[in-house]
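From the shared-data thread, chain only:
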Amino acid sequence: QRRLVESGGGLVQAGGSLRLSCAASGLSVSEYRMGWFRQAPAKEREFVAAISRNALNSYYTDSVKGRFTISRDNAKNTVYLQMNSLKPEDTGVYYCATGNRIGHYGSPSSYNSWGQGTQVTVSS
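Structure, as tokens:
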């Protein structure tokens, strides 16, 4: 059974850091472009970051560039999102997902398997 499990979320003050993990089972992350998305209350799910299968290319939404870093450890079948200098507007549920072979890296419709999400709350 394909499964993605996110962890590492929590409550942090503005300016703080968190490291999210996405552990996969029943699939090999090395076969997929991997993405992180987030969803704030009453808002649509939005793209945060993505990383290519070989980790040579990474992509970020403008609001997190310079603060967030996506990485992968294919040997551990895990993808990470290091989040620094957190802001209250980063608050939301963060999801990881496996990417389709085709489609834009920033579109949720370009991803198939999703985790259950982990809550990140940044207080001001």
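The chain has no helices and eleven strands.
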